[in-house]
Amino acid sequence: MATSQERDGREQLSERRRAVFDAVRAAGAPLGVTEVADQLDVHPNTVRFHLDALVAHGHVERTLEQPSGPGRPRTVYAPQPGMDRGGTRRYRLLAQMLLSQLASTGPGAEAAATDAGRAWGRYLVDQVPPSRELTAEEAVGRLAAMLDDLGFDPQLAGDGEAPGPVRLRHCPFLELAEEHGTIVCPLHLGLMQGALAELRAPVEATGLEPFAEPDACLAHLAPSTAA
């Protein structure tokens, strides 16, 4: 698992390591250890230690520079291509942009969201061998496990013979659902439909009531009508 230093990038570097990184980034061409050491007025072994750490964390790449004449290839360092990974992320804004664009496409937007949800539901649910047939109770249990992993905090009702509604007590996309419910809620229903279809379950998701209760949405299940 990545450490916080690896995840957050440049902002987590020590003062000395950041100085080494900045020297490599500011250069117009790959630098050797001695060149960085001369710039920073520190011992080459210190620079080499920090460069090795920067390579290990993916900030810098190490290559061999072929000599123009006789002699050994020189080891040089250059920044890894890409942006500084320490910046702020705006994924909610990205989601708002995409949802507003989808909503503007007209009457087909809801169906497109449901289809997208179905595809992801098939992908996200735990698979079962083709030879195995699940009971309704087992299928609903796997559905609940998927919803729980996604942050919906599901609560099951009914029994294996007559599955009742699933109470979704938390929405991981709550603010987006409040703003773009006609897109986000059909996507949620599609997730459940796709998951149950992938499981070849004898039960299907027939509807989703957003904010049906003060603290929950209700997903309705029924025996499957598929042959």
Automatic annotation (TrEMBL):
Superkingdom field: Bacteria
Region ranges (Disordered): 63-85
InterPro entries the record matches: WH-like_DNA-bd_sf (IPR036388), WH_DNA-bd_sf (IPR036390)
Name of this chain's protein: ArsR family transcriptional regulator
Lineage start: Bacteria, Bacillati, Actinomycetota, Actinomycetes, Kitasatosporales
